User: Fold these one by one.
Assistant:
Number 1:
Amino acid sequence: MSDHQQTNRLIHETSPYLRQHAHNPVDWYPWGKEALARARAEDKPIFLSIGYSACHWCHVMEHESFEDEETAALMNERFVSIKVDREERPDLDAIYMDAMQAMTGQGGWPMSVWLTPDGKPFHGGTYYPKEPRYGMPSFQQVLRAAADAYHNQRDRVDGQAERLTAMLRRTASLAADGGELGADILVEALQQMRQYFDDEDGGFGSQPKFPQPMTLDFALTQHRRTGDLDALWMAELTLEKMAHGGLYDQLGGGFHRYSVDAVWLVPHFEKMLYDNAQLLRTYLHVWQVTGRPLHRRIVEETIDYVLREMTAPDGGFYSTQDADSEGHEGKFFVWTPQEIEALLDPPTAAIFGDYYGVSARGNFEGKNILSVVRSVEQVAQRFKSSPAKVEAALAQGRSVLFARRETRIKPGRDEKILTEWNGLMIHALAECGVVLDRPDALAAATQAANFVLAQMRQPDGRLYRSYKDGQARFNAYLEDYAALIRGLIALYEATFDLRWLGEAAQLTQIMFEQFHDAANGGFFQTGVDHEQLVARRKDFVDNAIPSGNSLAAESLLRLAVFLDKDDYRRQAARILLMMKEAMARQPTGFGRLLGVLDAFLAPSQEIAIVGDPADAATQALLATVRRRYLPHTVVALKRPGEESMLPLLQGRDLVDGQPAAYVCENYACRLPVTSADALAELLAGKR
């Protein structure tokens, strides 16, 4: 017998987020024809609730309102209620988030939007409490007001809905204007970034603070392009502060979603695959530039976290880990001094607590989020010890506390496998795997690519968005194609298996067929045969994840070099021209696209290597390239005697029977070199 008093339609969904609401007394529908038809037939407004399984405030609103019989009765009487997982349906999330921001000036989840029966928004907000507080109306008050407005002020509601819908459709007609793409855009963007930069604690703005790896990567490209030490400092300071704060899991590795304060101490505790994928690459890049051990350690520990916690047995990467465990946010991650003292001997506990800021008062609801508050050298001085002994004590403490933490009830994990997020992680693990000689990371990237291409592809070659419980669902979006294409290109450059480049080229062709706007340039988020929504958007602005168009432009530029396709370069340029003014004015919204512009303006840089990858001399040449931060350089390899389809490799061969490297710009190559030292000399002057 079930303990649940009621079950609604969401029980048949694969999304963990939707299934969390399957036993609410609310008569929930998933988004689809049935719900929309009922709204039209009964002339009822739609209440649309969008969230995701790791969202803390989504859980709070469910407990307060959606599990409440009185609130549910009101919803069931006056609305058709639809629940959407934003991770499965980024198209709906993007449309109605744009509408909510236009109405309220803010965004976030849970998203609460009221629609006419044809899907046009007329009112919206985020979390609403059960009772009025902090100047916010109660959820029931908002429900009654929305229902009253729909039935008794219809002209006003329809007018609002039409105005918002017209606004939502504007991106569809965006076109590339004339003009030139110049380095002045990069210079202005960097100047704008400096104005928002926190000189003391890193990051941009005040609180809450988000990691913004794309913006930091752009800063690193500008340091590389011009030697600007200020750009490097912005990236280094931010990444160091994040690594030392509670945003980073000091015991288990990996980053939480964002910090609620300005000093990176108290996070929202959910962990997202996409954040960790992007931060892996950013920390790798700053390590390539600086060689600082801290940055490499963060990469290594985050790889360990992803392989341990977020990797499915058959391949693919899970989506998120929850902020809550046992009904409390952050409970899994925090400590009391007594817990630590019971696990460690007194000297080790004292050193551990001093380094990680553990106190009786605590820093989060009476307990302690571990964060680095002083250096190893400072702790050594305070305890009249050596840095080596302090390091040993800290390592022991981390090991013991991590083992004990593993016995706690873990936060829930959303085990959906999403094509887009997997593409980002494939890219990260392929790149980190070969740079840091982590064959386990490269193997995981390869296994994930195999999984997505085998289990999340339709018979005609098109992709699905989501996979869960043996079922692939939802036609993929632009961002799914663009992220996976970029991941496959990275996998080729890590393995030199032409299969990955072939798969990337095939998916690029489908991307053009399904999403490209041949008339105006750029790509729509949804395919030509996608269900008709109130708007067909083009997405250019980076949020927590790179926009589909910035990922597409980056992949096209790289494929243009590998496949010698000038049209790909022209299509990337059209995207850049569409956003050239916005990029300069709002750099934190266009970090990935600014990096694409930097690559577009730089000479095409190629390295062709001929040699057996198992040969020590070939490996030395590859290591010389990979140790350096060369973000816009493409690397191709062919084995001796092999015929290659890649123009870059044609006519290249061993030199005097030795593995050789050809360093080229725009396919014009210097004389080949056969030693790592000679190759390093050639690369030393490249920007």
Number 2:
Amino acid sequence: MDPAMLVLAMSGGATAGVAIATLVVGGVVGLFVDRWLSAKSLRAAQDQARDIIRNAEAEAKNAAEKLRLDAEKETLQRKEKLDAEVEASRAELRETERRLGKREDVLHDKEESLSKRDAGLSKRDDKLRDRERGVDEREKEIEATIRKQTDKLHELARLSQEQAMEMLLRRVEEENRHEVAKVVRQVIEDAEEEAKKKATEITLMAIQRIATEVTSESTVRTVAIPSDDMKGRIIGREGRNIRAIERATGVDIIVDDTPGVIVVSCFDKVRQAIAVESLEKLIADGRMHPTRIEEVVEKTRSEIDEKITKFGKESALEVNIRGMHPKIVDAMGRLHYRTSYGQNVLRHSVEVAFLSQLIAEQLGLDGRLARRAGFLHDIGKAMDHEMEGGHPKIGMDFARQHGEREEAVLNAIGGHHADIPSTTFYTPIVMAADAISSARPGARRESMEKYIQRLNELQDIALSFKGVTEAYAIQAGREVRVMIDAGRVSDDEAFLIAHDIAKRVADEMTFPGEIKVTVLRETRAIEYAR
């Protein structure tokens, strides 16, 4: 072989070996580099994965904490809402219990009244039966006496002096009884005629000079509303607004199908006025929620208190009475919101004051003192719903406690319904003026139940007298007509029966004005033609 070719071959083989070695070394180095880079990327990926995991865990933790806080907040809100609903339900239950209690009291009072009436009717039945038995026994005794007298008349010649005297005295006594009745009748008629004539003159003069208007009020007032949609706003969600109004004012709000109005019912005219004015302000303002209702009611109550003082001062100036204690003035102002049988008590008091003055001056007495007594006679009605006892005693104690020193005034306040004896002439004067003011047509209004009860009592009293066969209450209870048995009662005895019925009615019944008792006695002869 050529040496050059050999050298060339050897050189090429060496070069190839080097190349192979280089490749092997490069592969090994590349493998290590690749593993290093892979390990580095793996570590970076692992670090990134750990960061992602930590971030995800932090976000998950924050989200869980937020969910927990939101859940606690929602739970707290639900609890507050449930507490409010429970409290509203409890308030509604308490209000319902209060109303039920009020109804139970009314039913209890009616039951007691019916029981008393039944007991009274039973007693009257027993008395009537006893009287019937007594009448029967009396008739039997009379018949027996007549028989005995007839028998004795046949033996008149054989009577002793004492027996004849006794018989004569009995006859004289019987005859004189009718004569005494005639005399009594004539005397009473003359006295009553003269007294009635004088009293009529004074009364007519007083009524003609005092011609005030009649003010009749009710325990129910209406409030106009712009539309029926306002009824829903007044009621409020689940009734919270209407309950807030009733709770703040103490009245009953009646929302029915009557268009354009709602009804406010309350026996206390002060609370009723506060409720009506508050509702009018709330309707005009448009804002209707419990907080606003309480604010308006409180403001209206202050305004009503100011009006009460104003009414008291104005009425005192009207009747020209000065020097009264401020408490007495305020009490008289409250009477503006009180009614008696529908009659405004303050206007009634002013009218009684002037009537008392006129009557007293006609009788030659102190008109100023009579005017003061008449003005204050019903002051007890300003607080009789807050205290026990009748308004005459309450008013007398209140006036004495606050500086009233006139004994005539105090006696007129306490005795104008005959609860205590009259110690001065001014008390019957106030009683007369009170009756005139109350009995004027349209001045007062009575409930149907009391009206019917008074008519029944009037008829029962008349029927309880001996010889009365029928009794009818007429003229709206201003007169009772009594029919008597002409065979058992004489004309003179009829007059005595009328007097006794009138006296018993005056003693046992309470009524405004006067009641006329008319007794009719007639003889009827009846025959039939066949």
Number 3:
Amino acid sequence: MKLNIRVAGAAWLWMNSTADIIADVFASLWYNILWDIEYISVIKWGTNYFDINISDTEVSLSKYADILIALDDKNLEANIKDLKLWKESFIIANNKWIQKLQDEKNISFDEYNLLPVEINDTYDNTYLIAVFAKFLGLPIHILQEHIEQVFKKKWEEVIEKNKQIFTHIFDNYILPFSSPFGEIQKRKKKSVSYGNKLLAYGAIDNGLAYYSAYPMTPSSTILTEIINSKKINYLQAEDEIAVVNSALWASFTWVRAMVGTSGGGFALMTEAISFAIQAEIPLTMVLVARAWPSTWTPTFGEQWDLNFALSPSFWDFDHIVLCPSSLENGYYLASQALNLAEKYQTVVIILTDKQFAEGKGSIGELKKALYERGKFVENPANDYARYALSEDGISPMVEIGKKWGEFIATSYEHDEYGATTEDSLVKKKMTEKRWKKLENFYKKEGIQGYEMINQDAKKMIITTSFISYTAREFVKNNPEFGVIIIHFLKPLDARLLEELKGKEEVIFVEYNYSWQLENYIVKELWLKFVDGLKISHMRKYDLMPFYYEDFEEELLK
């Protein structure tokens, strides 16, 4: 079974709770869930919706809804266009909104399958969910359990009123037609979570001890999850400059630290990134991309920040950029990023986007990286040199306060002890030392920077982040295509070049106008010089995510 349910309404109409209940109920029945939320920053007059995609196999984002649950007239009108063919889709709404659009806007609903509800109190959400549940044959006891969970902080009479509405609808509402979606299977429960939460807990579960952030959509909920965990120290500072410098201080004292932000905040952090590289202070950063340029469309998703993450400051240095491709992968890479920052004493950027950050879904087993801290001196000798030259470019760190462990961490060029210098030979050696760190990175780590599906296909899609969910289902249904999902953007795994030799075509799929992923990988791997390889792309920059239908329309036409 595949089903896309759209919950649409104004921001103050408890949309989140409605969508949460629907998603959690289906996860309780062992279905795969993947949702996308779209909302505008002009909150008062906005049209907003959740798309909850449900499947018993692979799950992806669909452009069109099978069922629209509309909480007001404006969102009912705005979302009719995204329903599937009228004979195959259904509208559940308060009857007064249907009547209003008929009377005031002359909108005809004759071609739609309507499940109208007469509602005379303020519990619209509960009535609509109850009709939806009866229509699909969902177990009433599971719904009432979720109602209790959602409203557990409310008065008992509120919880009881919601339960009574469910009982009333199940006993009295007459369905105008039966559900065409088949029997809902009743199986064991799956867990549900979302991207920012899994990033937060992946880091927490691998030793994160300090987090700092200034709220900025769509990265803000990482801070929310950190606070709610009650497990680590955090700082919501007055601006992003204070945020990143407080994290540098924490890391300098050998505390695992992480910051989170979006593009505008990241721009303010670039000087501190240069400091961290020069002083070799580990720093893990989460950069959640949103639509640009400047500040407008801040609540929508695009991938404008890839080039920014690859070159966040002055160019003559090296660092690491990771890109989670699934919710489970986000949990793992967050834990791995902390290890890599300390092992290589550098900046590690976890690059995600709005769809990943706020995308919710059912999750499988979560795995984290083993805890590693790199070169660490427990008892330094009296000639301890913090920036000692070494074969691999990585110098031994020491916990601040240890006897003989004093050193200077400066933004200036320095010698092995941290003392400022402008000696040309020292400058040359220190630059070479810092560049050595990431040489042979994949061999040293024993990992692969990408994942391949349908490896033998002649046409390969290359993509990142949340697009991976939809790309996976597309290549499953169209085996003449394969997909390469990039997990490590920098350093780029050069073995990918050999994988592409002998292919007919690579198609780069990304959310931006300027082909940032394509330009980067083509340049790094010299793909233009691979005999017989056609290079093409599929781009979106209209604020909307990639839907399964986009893949079909563009790649199968």
